[in-house]
Write a structure and sequence with these properties.
- The complex is a heterodimer of chains A (114) and B (108).
- By secondary structure, chain A is an all-beta fold.
- Helix content of chain A is 0%, strand content 57%.
- In chain A, strands 2, 4, 5, 6, 9, 10 and 11 form a seven-stranded mixed beta sheet that branches.
- In chain A, strand 9 and strand 10 form a beta hairpin.
- Chain B has 108 residues and is an all-beta fold.
- Chain B is 0% helix and 52% strand.
- Chain B is built from no helices and eleven strands.
- Chain B is globular and about 40 Å long.
- Chain B starts with a strand and ends with a strand.
- Classes of the chains: A mainly beta (114), B mainly beta (108).
- Chains A and B meet through strand 5, strand 9 and strand 10 of A and strand 5 of B.
Chain lengths: 114, 108
């Protein structure tokens, strides 16, 4: 049981390059999320998927696209990277557990755009 | 508008001291969660509080949910260097609403 896995762990891009961040969960959760975390800004929601086949914008969706490939996988794509997208990106999934609605995070992808 | 305000933003204390961090909102939440994030890792769920006035203990950590379900506190007794990290509260909306966190440093 790996929980939430993310690839890659680190990435350096040049301005204008594209890339896809991959996320997978093995907890059979319906909901999945992409966040970015910047110093002093906390966790900001980029996109989320409440269930397979649906996606919704979060607080900061501009410059990103997502795909809910199946129940396990939720990818985040940067079509034309910008320095403002330098950040740590976290994927998460959620489901109901013993304590109610519980969210589990992956280890993060550290992205630098030069 | 930030739905969840956490205070203090930063806290640096000596090992063995006690501390309390706060999570406040003008909104009512059906439940509230606390997460801890260690450097280089993703946040990890510590506890969920559901009932107004509820108190939950996790070893040296005590979590309280306000009677009106608008605020919560986390008290750590005899802090240890292993408690160092970012403490985040999250309110039960869909999706979850996170505060900006309290960054705690416990110095040996």
């Amino acid at each position: 049981n790996a929980g939430v896995t993310q690839t890659p762990k680190f990435q350096v891009l040049k301005t204008g390059q594209s890339m896809t961040l991959q996320c997978a969960q093995d907890m059979n959760h319906n909901s999945m999320y992409w966040y970015r975390q910047d110093p002093g800004m906390g966790l900001r929601l980029i996109y989320y998927s409440a269930s397979e086949g649906t996606t919704d914008k979060g607080e900061v969706p501009n410059g990103y696209n997502v795909s809910r490939l199946n129940k396990r996988e939720f990818s985040l794509r940067l079509e034309s990277a910008a320095p403002s997208q330098t950040s740590v990106y976290f994927c998460a999934s959620s489901g109901f557990g013993g304590g109610g609605y519980e969210q589990y995070f992956g280890p993060g992808t550290r992205l630098t755009v030069t | 508008t930030q739905l969840l305000e956490q205070s203090p933003q930063f806290l640096s204390i000596q090992e063995g001291e006690n501390l309390t961090v706060y999570c406040n909102s003008s909104s009512v939440f059906s439940s509230l969660q606390w997460y801890r994030q260690e450097p280089g890792e993703g946040p990890v769920l510590l506890v969920t509080v559901v009932t107004g006035g509820e108190v939950k203990k996790l070893k040296r950590l005590t979590f309280q949910f306000g009677d009106a379900r608008k605020d919560s506190s986390l008290h750590i007794t005899a802090a240890q260097p292993g408690d160092t990290g970012l403490y985040l509260c999250a309110g039960a909306y869909t999706p979850l609403v996170f505060g900006k966190g309290t960054r705690l440093s416990v110095i040996a």
